[in-house]
TrEMBL record:
Source organism (scientific name): Rhizomicrobium palustre
Binding-site list for NAD(+): 10-15, 34, 96, 119-121
Enzyme class: oxidoreductase
Coiled coil regions in record: none
Domain Lactate/malate dehydrogenase C-terminal: from-to ranges: 148-310
Protein name, UniProt field: Malate dehydrogenase
Known function: Catalyzes the reversible oxidation of malate to oxaloacetate.
Encoding gene per record: mdh
Amino acid sequence: MAQPKIALIGGGQIGGTLALLAGLKELGNVVLFDIVEGLPQGKTLDLAQGGAVEGYNAHLSGTNSYEGIAGADVVIVTAGVPRKPGMSRDDLLSINLKVMAAVGEGIKTYAPNAFVICITNPLDAMVWALRQFANHPAEKIVGMAGVLDSARFRHFLSEEFKVSKEDVTAFVLGGHGDTMVPMPRFSTVAGIPLPELVKMGWTTQEKLDQIIQRTRDGGAEIVGLLKTGSAFYAPASSAIQMAESYLKDQKRVLPVAAYVDGPYGIKDLYVGVPAVIGENGVERIVELQLTAEEKAALDKSAGAVQGLIEACKKMDPRLG
Ligand code: APR
């Protein structure tokens, strides 16, 4: 049977790691696209040679032409630039918006049926714009942030409780960034919600608050340590989990940046919500009953995303 085709747009740190993970997990054949000549070709040649040792037979190739992504089943987008010191939010927005316009055109022409996962920051605004540029069905295009944010939360919680990360579930809602909304009530150790664990004396509210803040600052903490780049291993793992759920119709319930138009009282926005990912893409958005406090935090987060989208609309009249 023909293998699925996975197109990776952007062959940098995350793109290369995505290709490695797709190979190791035997998800399909991989084509890596980048505007830098030789980069995707060199990386995929290196990775293909690794297949002889690791035992994967996937076909891995690199390209500088959008034709190479033709017929892709999954497209994962990391193309763009990360925010550098001295760069304003609007500078980053304007550069990556132009990249999304080019990537969207490529998807529209060559991969109109693909399940698209966007990782480029600022995530919620970029995936919103990418959908417009690609004219893609909303259920077939999502952003990756929540799986990563909740992975960070789960990691910190597992360290606090000294239990396996596998037994820690965590939910985060809202935009990717400072206004992200971690949800302690829906985060558990083996089914026991975090507020119960505080009552049981496993941790204190103060420690929990510190962990929540560290989760919010998770990306910045890694940038501060690396100095020359941002996180790439966990972001790649997170996107691969989403791709796998689509390709294998696993119907995983994952926090993703999905197109929300109605649920949670949110209109025409991409924002982090729990969603079922299966063969049809986003098959269901899970609408939790929020407390007034949680709803206010989500509204604030959605407002921040809305602000970025308005800025995008001003920068590119096609989005208006
Ligand atoms: N088309 C295709 N690729 C592009 C384009 C473009 N128009 N513009 C830049 N690129 C490529 C760069 O050549 C580079 O190889 O995108 C790649 C980005 O790679 P890195 O700089 O290594 O960034 P990475 O760490 O992979 O993160 C990518 O994900 O988490 C976000 O904030 C992060 O937006 C950033 C993205």
